[in-house]
Amino acid sequence: MASQEFEVEAIIDKRQHQNGKTEYLVRWKGYDKEDDTWEPEQNLTNCEKCIYDFNRQQMVKQKKSTGNRTRTTSSNNIRKRTSRTSTSSFSKNFPRRTLTGKPHKSKNNQLRETHQNFIRS
């Protein structure tokens, strides 16, 4: 049986499994949001530009979010915004530690994977 080819409208999200395989959440052209599917990278042929654009946008978002961190604290019912800087005395006095172990999975990713597995079964 010949496999059908569908056109990718956009890459919505990306996830990496513990075995190192990358999957992309694909929005298919002519289909609704409910029809988005997680596809392994090797299944996405002829859409390298979509993948490149998605990864480039993610890098830009990540740079913006890490360069502009602020912390909100509450004191006497007055909210103050304080900026974190990498030149604080704390970071000068204490060496950086590298963490090793399993990659962290957020609760949202775990719920999303469980939901996708439930839908597939």
What report would you give on this structure?
It contains 3 helices and 5 strands. By secondary structure, it is α+β, with helices and mostly antiparallel strands. The protein has a domain of 80 residues: OB fold (Dihydrolipoamide Acetyltransferase, E2P). Strands 1-2-3 form a 3-stranded antiparallel beta sheet, covered by helices on one side.
List the helices and strands and how they pair.
Blueprint: E1 8-16, E2 22-28, E3 37-40, H1 48-67, E4 70-75, E5 78-83, H2 89-93, H3 107-120
Antiparallel strand pairs: 1-2, 2-3, 4-5
Helix count equals: 3
CATH architecture of the domain at 1-80: Beta Barrel
Sheet of most strands? 3 strands, antiparallel
Number of strands: 5
Gyration radius, rounded: 20 Å
Q: Give the rounded overall mean pLDDT.
A: 74
Strand content: 25-35%
- Secondary-structure content class: alpha+beta
Level of helix content? 25-40%
Taking strands numbered 1, 2, ... along the chain, how are they ordered across the largest sheet? 1-2-3
Q: What fold name stands as the CATH topology of the domain at 1-80? A: OB fold (Dihydrolipoamide Acetyltransferase, E2P)
Biased composition (Low complexity): 67-77, 84-93
Protein name: Testis-specific chromodomain protein Y 1
Domain Chromo: 6-66
Region (Disordered): 60-121
